[in-house]
Amino acid sequence: MDMKEQPVRCTICPKLCRVPPGFSGECRIRMNVGGALQAATYGRPCAVHVDPMEKKPLFHFFPGQQILSVGTAGCNLHCKNCQNADISQANPEDVQAFDLPPPALPALAARHGCRHVAYTYTEPLVSYEYTLDCAQAARAAGLRNVLVTAGYINPAPLRKLLAVIDAANVDIKAFSDPFYRDVCGATLEPVLRTVEMMRAAGTHVEITNLVVPTLNDSDDLFRKLCAWVAATIGAETPLHFSRFFPQFRMTHLPPTPIGTLTRARDIARKEGLKHVYVGNAEVADGETTTCASCGAALITRQRYVVKANRLTQGGACPDCGKRAQGVWA
Asked: pTM to 2 decimals?
């Protein structure tokens, strides 16, 4: 049989899809064309916006600054609660897209006054070649690169990508492999490995946990997640507990109760985490950065807007002098 007529193994993510000619893998975008895998979304993002950094969410990476955000169709996870399912779970030919080749990205960022670029909205890792080429072009132009990702990728491609990534927010869906298998169509261990590799590479890392009622909101799961974060990547790692709202295939569940989110925050603090946030909800001091040493309020926010920033130029607390973990202007 001609090699062009044989299936091709995709090695980007742990699913290792075996892709027949003319078809795509589970992510819908990595296609076998003539015996070679090609991303159908290369140079064709379906979402391009300017966002506040806090929307990623990144609270310890140039707070208050704007970031150019780019996303393509497709995802290698199939979360039943996906908030962007109209593009993440869509075939690329069914989604309106824009022409944005990697060399054009830095000029677009400059036009909007952005010094940072985020690869976000869906899963930037499945559009691997496009994300890598864009990040390299941005880095060459002096821009900083941010990944907003579920972190489901194999070590070799991740290692190459991290050479040009400055910060990442990784969504740990739950500290539970059964949850990953049932809700996301994936597994937990590769995500944890991704976070560890990011930290080892010097990438600034923040973690998000979307709290879904009845599915990943137990005290035990909160403790396991927080203990792992503290022990593996550090007690000063920012952790964001985010409020779930019913959507996609989980419209039967209610929004996360505020009390559940504050309980999760309390558990995280008892486990020693110093920077714990509550997102998608109005919670007192839910978005306030406090000093890990003296507890003073350093940055206050409201709905992605920085209201006050008391950090010194070097990123230290003005009251006790301890430097806050993060990357500051």
From this structure: 0.96
